[in-house]
Every structure is written in structure tokens, then in C-alpha cells.
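On clarity, I found the account of how folds are encoded harder to follow than it need be. What matters is that the chain and its backbone geometry are given together, residue for residue. For the editor and my fellow referees, an illustration may be useful. For illustration, here is how one protein appears when written out as sequence plus C-alpha cells:

___
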Amino acid sequence: MRNKQRKRPDVIVWRQFGGKGYCAFASLHRQVCIGILSVATLGMAARAHARQNTAALSSAEVRESTDETEMTELTVSGTMAPLTELQSARIVSVLTRQDIEQAAVQSINDLFKLVTGVDVRQRGGFGIQTDISIDGGTCDQVTILLNGIDIGNTQTGHFSADFPVSISDIERIEVLEGAASRVYGGQSFGGAVNIVTRHDSGQAVDFRAAGGSFGTAEGEARLALTTGRVGSRISGGGGRTDGGTQNSGWRKGQLYYQGDYEDTALRLDWQLGFSRKDYGANTFYSAAYPDQYERNERILASVSAETKGRFHFTPQVFWNRYYDNFELIRGDRFGENFHRLDVYGIKAGGYFSWKAGKTAVSAVIRRDDILSTNLGRDLDPAQYVAASGPGTGEAGLCYTRSDSRTTTSFSVEHNVLLPHWTLSAGIMASTTSGIDHGFRFYPGIDAAWRPTNRWKLLFSYNKGFRLPTFTELYYKSPTHEGNRDLKPEHNHSFSIGSQYAVPGASASIRGFYHRGTQMMDWVMYAPDDVFHSASFDLDNLGLQLQGKLAFPELMSRNAWVRSLSLGYTYIHQNRHDKVDVYKSNSALEYLRHKFVANVTHRIVSRLSMSWDVRWQQRMGSYMEGDRLYGYHPYWMLDAKLQWDAPTYNLYLQASNITNHTYHDLGSVPQPGIWVMAGARLRLSLCKN
């Protein structure tokens, strides 16, 4: 966990968590006690009036608050009900706004490389094609949320990490590791990621422009306005590059709007997002076709609310549409696919505190619809739908296949809070049309023991599941063949760990064991075979260590070195297949070792430097021609030099400074050294 600085100022108590300028992971460097928190998010950013009383806390919380002198923030606990960081029984990693501004990264997806337990696999620069996984899993096994709204892609997890926001929009990133289906839904098989955007107040505008290697140029603007009880933030930007490797050039653009309203009885939050990118896909699905090309477009909308009172009702309504145009051979109709995915639903639930603890309930109805030229069941010609979206300019082009499924789930959870103990237990019941007609049950229990206010010991067990994507079920091409008989994956996730924290220093250790059944993968059974969508069982064992030092708190406010963080993860997997596999396309290619380190230091005045170092060793192999090659371990060094003033920021950053040649996924070599220079201007339109 990064940038967890701790001090001992006065306690601030909020009566409710409204979704504006403070939140569970806001690095406020002070003790925070929150009486009520929205169950709809991993930690939705919020703004409220501070109050110097504890009337909203349960009696157990009041007793426990005397032990919270070392706490500076809340953390997402992996439970449906809100718990303070001291009470939490789950370890969550967080990248704060300060971490994000200091990081030498090119994109949002690059930020996840700084999280110890996250594997980021890219096919090019700037995160254009990125797979994100947790604890040795795959990109299909993670729930991706934007401000607590699920924006994952059920066509394929390869597209889940396409975001309509930019780095400048983000307040923090939260990563929950381990199964959490009872809390965040079915796709939380291996963990969950929540991107929380900034909730600025007042009137302000930001501009940023940057350029660098390989003809790269990008720019963006961001406007924040507050009118009465309504707050609005709108941002937009785009960029282009020739790419650092063969057939990896891209163009992209995004537009994002977020608003909120709050009065004495109700809090509303809404967001609209749009993103578009066109890019050379290199060997995205097969090394046999190096000239692939892809166009993606995303539209999202959501509204969430929270009532105020003894029972907090927290409904959500959401809709995501995703267009995909894939060319196996650029400019050729052979192997070309068009897809339109719609994911929409409603979530209703709430929570309340009483003498026995905290109780939360929720119900979710979610619908996934796909129209495609490749995925789904054949439509009668009379049912064909005219294709739309990028790449569909040709008259008469139609979607000829479709599929849909509806998932209904109910969850209940109760949290017992004692002076030195927390016990959280709950269960989710879920059923999905088209998969089976019965309810499946997914329980979980988390426990934490706090012998002192500096130490915490944790244990958890959670059962997770994941539905097959439409690609795994139906995709057929010259190199791949789906499997309509796939069943949901199941995961029994055990975790044990410990956390230690004092002002200026924190550390954690976590061990985990995941037992996966009916796991899904693309595999080849012989060198001349195509990839088949198949299932297997898996034993996944790992150990994770993290530590953070904040030298201004340990030494003096003028310390030359500002911060130092270290992290290491080790994973060992034992796979059980019914038939011997020649080549796995994803599930066997996990990180055996990952080490990350970051140090930030001053140079002079406002000039500072941040260094990011990574070392990782990937298991598995990739194909070149008809031969298999193992992945080689490698070191990576990135750096960022910046001058930070109140109204402007100038920076120079470099990725892969040693110009190392390496592979993250398949036979695609990653770019060498990539240098970018940029400037950011921040203007306040009026004073509050």
C-alpha cells in the first residue's frame, strides 16, 4: 500500500458519507471516523460537513474509537457495511492522488503496475491494449468499477480496462485482492478494482499537453463548476502516436461528465462517459496474423442515490454500451468481426446500524445483451439488425448473431464489532438465465483481531464465481474455437495476514490460497492446433509483502527523501487438466515473482524526482513460428522529473530508461525507452 502517512491530529467525525470530497481512501493524514458509508461502492468519494461528535456511531464503535489514535483514513474492507480501517478485516491497496501525480506512467493502466499484487500485460505503449489481473488470475476474473459502478466487459476481459477518464480525473485507485462475490458481484472472482474520480468544489479549469517519442502527442482539458447544491465536472482529451513497435500506432479520445446533488434528505451522483480508440492490434489473438487492427467505442451512464436517516437506501441504475470492430488482416474483410454489447441493470439495497452491529442487504438485476457477426446464436434473416458503431460504414452490414442473459442476485451481511475484534459474515444467492435455472450460493467470512492499535491480524474465506464471457462461449476464427458447454468458474479463496502502522511507517504481510474449479482458458493441444476454450482446476498459493516510509513524519518536514515504498509478491500454481496442454494462452502465464519499489525525493525548491523500479518473472511461454519460448525475467526503470507550482506543473518522464527488450504477452516485443515532456496549467475561475 502506497502513501499511507499517519499523524496524530484531532479526530474528525462525519455523520454520513455523501460521495463528494472525502472518502474511505482520501489521504487526509488525520484520524477519521465515519458513521455511515454508501454500500454501493468500494469507497465512493464524498464531501460533507465535519462534526465534532460521535452520536452516529454505534456503542461498539464509540468504545473502539479510543483505540484509533493512529488511524488516518478509512479503508475498503471488502464488506457491504462500512467499517473503519482499524475495524476492517481485509487488506486493500490504494494509490492516492499524490502517488498518481508522482508516478512516471503514461496511462491509467500503467498505474496498476505500481500495485504489488496486480499483473499488467500490455501489447503496446499507453495502455491501449491492457489486461489487468490479480493474484495470478486472468483479466476476466476481476471486477472493474468506476466510482463504484461496474464497467466490466462480458464480451471479453481484454476490454474491461478501457476507461473514459484520464489520469487527471482520478482521485485514487483502490485494489481489493481475493474473492469478494458476496459484496461486489459475480465477476469478483479474484478481486476488484475501483477508480474514484475527483470531486472538486468551486470553479476551476485545468489544461494539460504533452508530447514525446514516436510522434506521440496528447492533450486534455478539465472544468469543475459548483452551482448551489449541484456540482459538475467535465473533461475531455485525446492523443495519437506512431507506436513504439510494429503495428502499434493508435488514436484515442474520451469525454467524461460527472455531477452530484445533495440536500438534507438525499444525495445523488450521476456520470456519463464516452471513449474511442483505433489501434494496430499487432498479434492480439494470434502470432500468425501480425497486421491486425481494432476499433473500440464505449458509452456509459449511471445514476446512484443515498437517502439519509436510520436506514440508508442506496439504489443504482447503470448502462454500458461497447462497440468493437476487429480486423484479422488490416483492410481485409477476411476474419473481420463486429460486436455491440449492452450491459444494464438496477441495484437496490441499504444498511443500518443497531446494537448487535451493522447489517446490509442488496438485490441486483443485471442484463447482458450482445449483437455480433461472430458471437452468439444464429439469428433468422428476418431478425438481422443493422450494424452500427466504428467501422460499419458499409451499407447492408448486419449483426447475424445474438445472445443475452439475465443475472439476479440477493446478498445479506452482518458485522459484529467488538473492542478488539471484527467479524463480518454474509452470503450471496445468484442465478443466471442461459447458464442454469437454480440459485448458486457464495458465502464469505472475514475476521480481524487487534491486540493493539498498531497491530492487526486478519483471516478471511470467500467463495467467488465467474460466468464465461461471450468470447469464450462462441468465438470462432482461423485460430480460435469457443465452447458453448462452459460452466461458471468457482473459487474458494483463503487469506491470512497482518498489518502494522505507526506515524510515518506501515507494513503488511498477506498469504493466500485459492482453489479454483472449472477455470477457463484458451489452450492448444498440439503445435498445429487452434486455441480451444477449455476448463481446468487450479491450486494457487501466494505470499505478499508491502512496506511504506514517509520521511517527513519520521524525520522532519524538510527531509530530502519524501517517501519510500517496497512490495514483493510470490505465486506458485499447480494446474490440473483432464488432457495434457501444449500451450496456454493466459491462465498459465502468471507472475511467479514481482518486486516493485518507489522513491521520491526533492532536488531543489519545487523540483522533485520520482523513481519506479520493477522486477518480474513470468511463467508460461509464447509462440514464434512453430516454437515455444519461455518468458525472461526483466528489470524496468521509470523516472519522472517535475517542477510543481500552485498554478502549473512542468514534467519530463521516461519509461524503460534502460531500453530493455521484453515481452509481456505473446510474441509482441514491448517499446524501448519512451520519453515524454508535458505541462499542466491550473486556474481558479473564482474564489469560494
In short: Helices lie at 59-65, 97-102, 108-111, 181-184, 470-474, 551-554. The CA atoms of residues 642 and 651 lie 4 Å apart. Residues 1-75 have pLDDT under 50 and may be disordered.
